[in-house]
Specification:
Blueprint: H1 7-17, E1 23-26, E2 45-49, E3 56-61, E4 66-69, H2 75-80, E5 86-88, E6 98-101, H3 105-121
Antiparallel strand pairs: 1-2, 2-3, 3-4, 4-6, 5-6
Helix pairs in contact: 1-3
Length: about 120
């Protein structure tokens, strides 16, 4: 978090989303980690709804104050939702193609709106 461009916004995003029913922030299992190795919390966290078989609904990167969401929307669909600060990624996992960089209150509200949509879909 020391290098995060918006640590306060990032902390507020995590506080709001982890207060939703059944949501927890988890570390990541490394691909070649030995069995029983602890989860890695250093690069990013996965927000997951308890009981979901779809995995996380968001991956959050503290160092960049960036949120990748389990949504596959076009820019037109994002505009229809009134979201102005998100972008559609062309690389990475195909189920996590909407991203928001937390830079101001508008981006925080957009990230929360989209996170709620992803949460409800998982």
């Amino acid at each position: 978090m020391r290098r995060s461009p918006a640590p306060e916004l990032f902390t507020r995003f995590l506080a709001r989303t982890t207060a939703w029913e059944g949501v927890s922030a988890r570390g990541i299992s490394r691909k070649h980690a030995p069995e029983g190795a602890p989860l890695d919390y250093s690069r990013y966290l996965r927000l997951r709804k308890e009981g979901s078989r779809l995995g996380g609904f968001a991956y959050v990167y503290a160092e960049r104050s960036s949120i990748n969401l389990r949504l596959h929307h076009s820019m037109a669909e994002l505009r229809e939702l009134g979201v102005t600060s998100a972008r559609v990624l062309s690389t990475g996992h195909p189920k996590y193609r909407v991203s928001v960089d937390l830079t101001d209150e508008t981006s925080l509200e957009d990230a929360l709106t989209l996170a709620e949509a992803a949460y409800r879909a998982t």
